[in-house]
Amino acid sequence: MSWQNYVDSNLVGTGNFTQGAIVGIQGGVWAATPGFTVGNNEILTLANGFKNPDSVRTNAPMVAGNKYMVVKADDRSIYGKLGKGGFCAVKTNQAIVIGVYGEGIQPGNAATSIEKLADYLIENSY
């Protein structure tokens, strides 16, 4: 399965995200939904946030050009909120899985589906 298929089927395909991407932990986009552009500075900010969660709690991170208020941050996951939507970012060994959801999507369902995808990637050495 290609990285794009993981984004299309296992992330956005769950119905819990409207957009998403899998990016390298040191930068670079591996796959993303059309029109969802995550910059290297945004990726590096998230990667640093896993090492230093307070950095993203105090300085709201940008994801695809939108600034989010962080509601959870630790060495594995960063969750943010913007209006009635939000984002989830989960670190694997080599990547960060990022999903954005909009109004009407339950944040808990989004978190569960992205965490499962991250677990699968970790189990397969990614």
Q: pLDDT average, as an integer?
A: 96
CATH superfamily: Dynein light chain 2a, cytoplasmic
Quaternary structure classification: single chain
What value does the Rg take, in angstroms? Answer: 13 Å
Helical percentage: 25-40%
Q: Which CATH architecture?
A: 2-Layer Sandwich
Strand content: 25-35%
Give the class-level CATH name.
Answer: Alpha Beta
Task: Tell me about this structure.
With 126 residues, this protein is of the alpha+beta class. It has one domain (7-123): Dynein light chain 2a, cytoplasmic (Beta-Lactamase). Helix content is 35%, strand content 31%. It is built from four helices and eight strands, in the order αββααββββββα. The strands form two sheets. A six-stranded antiparallel beta sheet has the order 2-1-8-7-6-5, sandwiched between helices. A two-stranded antiparallel sheet has the order 3-4. A hairpin with a 2-residue loop joins strand 6 and strand 7. The radius of gyration is 13 Å and the shape is globular. The two termini are 13 Å apart. The mean pLDDT is 96. Keywords: Actin-binding, Cytoplasm, Cytoskeleton. It comes from Acrasis kona. Pfam families: Profilin. It is found in: Cytoplasm, Cytoskeleton. Belongs to the profilin family.
Characteristic terms for this protein:
six-stranded antiparallel sheet; alpha+beta; globular; 126 residues; two-stranded antiparallel sheet
